[in-house]
UniProtKB/TrEMBL annotation:
It is found in: Membrane. The lineage of its organism: Eukaryota, Fungi, Dikarya, Ascomycota, Pezizomycotina. It is a multi-pass membrane protein. Residues 310-319 have a biased composition (Polar residues). It holds the Pfam family RTA1. This is Rta1 like protein. Residues 295-334 are annotated as: Disordered. It comes from the Eukaryota. GO terms for cellular component: fungal-type vacuole; plasma membrane. Keywords: Membrane, Transmembrane, Transmembrane helix. The chain crosses the membrane at residues 35-55, 62-81, 93-115, 136-161, 173-197, 224-244, 264-285.
Amino acid sequence: MSSRNVTHPFYLCNEVTPLCPVQATTLGYYPNRGINYFFAIGFGLAAAVTFVTGVWKKTWSYMAFITAGCMLELAGYAARVPLGSNPWNKDAFETQICAIILAPTLVCISIYLTLKHISLSINPELSRIRPRLYPWLFVPLDVSCLLVQAIGGAIAASAGYTDQAMLQHGNRAIIAGITLQVFVLLFFGTIAVDYYVRVKRWIKSGEAGAEAVGLWRDKKFRMFVYAVTGAYSGILIRCVYRIAEMAGGWGNKIMQDQPSFIVLEGFMVLIPCWLLACFPPGVLFPQMAARMSTRTKKERRADDKAGGQATPSRGGNDSSDPEQAASTPEPKGQ
């Protein structure tokens, strides 16, 4: 037998028995069914709230990515429910590991989109990167993280227990994808903090117009920014945890610690999803909602001719923006 194809001693296990103890499973424990029902319902409700508000206020792309992420989380925690009675359920394990690992990446895309609209609404010139380029920069990076993690999950799932070398390759790919996501999040955070500092100085200088100052001091706008900041922080903590969890290989001590998974994975994603659902831009940041609403082709062509740039009072939205990929067909806009 080659060194690549080593049969795992528990390869034939499909339920917990004296010869197939729960301690020998990858998780090493019976997942708590109550908490998994809680997470599944929580993510389902967050998806519903986000979807309804997004359709109501026409924040199409923002709504689509958060809803998709919440639905993936729902699928992942629903798959953990049967693991509560049989941790050897391979189909349920593979479903939950893939869905729960990939879902936050989709939620991150919506977070990345907010900086573009904040910059366009306050002062585009203070951004070190042209605001219309933010989606082109961060969406491909985030999708790359998603693809690397998906490839790693597929490799690990196909390896099963028979090909330990292939299993490790899948594990390394997942770690690489999550690590890349942490770097992208930190890069985004650095740019966001830099823009915040520059705007704050601009506001204090007295050079800012009344409209920009009004938005900067608006309580609803600040609530939206605080919610996005909280969501960003929670997902960043979750990603750092996932690196530590996966670094020790399948079935390591961190992976087999259920309380840390519940807090640092479950709640660190559920809370951000609910923050984004309960503090939507359509209600708290209408400038973003108006810009994201589908508009007529004539209006989009006008923006294209203007170079995709915007004044602080009304931002532009060019038709080639990646955000439009998640839009619905083009009814007459506002």
